Structures are given as C-alpha cells and as structure tokens.
Amino acid sequence: MFTKMKNIDSAFRYMRNFTLLVIIACACICCYSVYKSFQLVSHIQSKIYILSNGKALEASIGERKDNVPVEAKDHIKIFHYYFFTLDPDEKLIQSNITKAFYLADISAKRQYDNLKESGYYTNIISGNISQTINVDSVMVDVNQSPYYFRCYATEYIIRTTSTVTRSLVTEGWLRNISRSDNNPHGFLIERWATILNKDIKVQNR
C-alpha cells in the first residue's frame, strides 16, 4: 500500500512539474508573440506612402536632425531659384519674389528694393530679358545654430542678341521656424548677402 502511495505521489509531482513547464513555455511564447507584434506595428507605422501620378511611393519617417543638411540645401536652392528666375512679365516676377520672401527675412527684401530702385526689373521687362539660375553647390555648417551657409551658383541672362553667364556667390544663416505651406522646410534665411556677382562669359546669339 505504501509503495502504491509513493507511486501516486511521484506521478503527482511529475504531472505538476510538467504542467508548470508547459505553463512557463506558453507564457514565454505569448510574451515573444506580443513583443514581435509591437515590433511589427512600430515598423509599419514608421513608413508612409505617397501617391504620385497614380503610383504609391514608400517614404520613411525620420528625425529632423538626420535630414537637416538635405533640407537646408534644398531650401537655399529653392530660395535662389525664386529670387533669380526672371522673365519679362511683371506678374511672374512678383509671384516668384513673393515666394522667395516667405523663405528669407528682411535682408532679401532689402536686396529686392535695391534692384527695383536701380531699374533692374524694369530693364528686364522692357528689354525682353530672361534670367535663370543653376545652383552649383551649397555649403551648410550644421554644427552651430543658426546654420551658416554659402551658395555657389551660375546665372544665365538671356538677351535678344547675347547670353551672359555670371558667377554668383551668396552667404547667410538659416534659422529653424515652423513649417507651413509657403515654407515646407521650416527654415528662414537671415542676413543674406551677395559676396560675388560678376560676368564670366558673353556669348552672341
């Protein structure tokens, strides 16, 4: 009888240990599944899709500091494009200049006023002159805030009889501001100044 009781007690301990082992294993599997699920959801939420021309393009969400050099350079390029792209059309000139003003402080307005007072825009319109710009390179120092930049560009002034190629170098500082429809990068150009603006080539047409 005692032998029988001993066997029952051993079987009970065995079943108890086996049950505990199964419960622990199930708990580990559940915890691992929950962890992987959260990891998968986090990974999916870190991606967004942009619909462009009927195609879904994948974009990733990142910290702003990771994209500062790229966004800063693009902001500077866009500003220079709007400020220096001119055609003999008063409304177009005013539209481009207005867009440029959203990207810079009063220093850009001062340069515009100086050019306007000197008759530069009037000559563009009356002489049927077009002006385009190609930004060659932009240097931005992101180690200090505001960010110092220097922009190297080439201007093309297209007249009826000739095309003038001009070298342009400007500098300034970038300050962080809130993003908006008119300023999608969230930067403001401050103390913008022209260092160099000289003719390098004149080609007859």
CATH class of the largest domain: Alpha Beta
- The CATH architecture of the largest domain is Roll
What is the average of the pLDDT values?
86
- The helix tally amounts to 5
CATH topology of the largest domain: Nuclear Transport Factor 2, Chain: A
Intertermini distance: 119 Å
Unreliable spans are: none
How would you spell out the order of helices and strands?
HEEHHHHEEEE
Shape: rod-shaped
* Class inferred from helices and paired strands: alpha+beta
The whole-angstrom Rg is: 33 Å
What's the number of structural domains?
Answer: 2
Helix content: 40-55%
What is the fourth-level CATH superfamily of the largest domain? VirB8 protein
Q: How would you explain this protein's 3D organization?
A:
There is one protein chain. By secondary structure, this protein is an alpha+beta fold. It folds into two domains: 2-48; 63-204, VirB8 protein (Nuclear Transport Factor 2, Chain: A, Roll). 47% of the residues lie in helices and 34% in strands. The protein has helices at residues 2-45, 64-84, 90-101, 106-117, 120-126, and strands spanning 47-52, 55-60, 130-141, 147-158, 162-176, 187-204. The strands form two sheets. It has a four-stranded antiparallel beta sheet with strand order 3-4-5-6, with helices on one face. Strand 4 (147-158) and strand 5 (162-176) form a beta hairpin. The radius of gyration is 33 Å and the shape is rod-shaped.
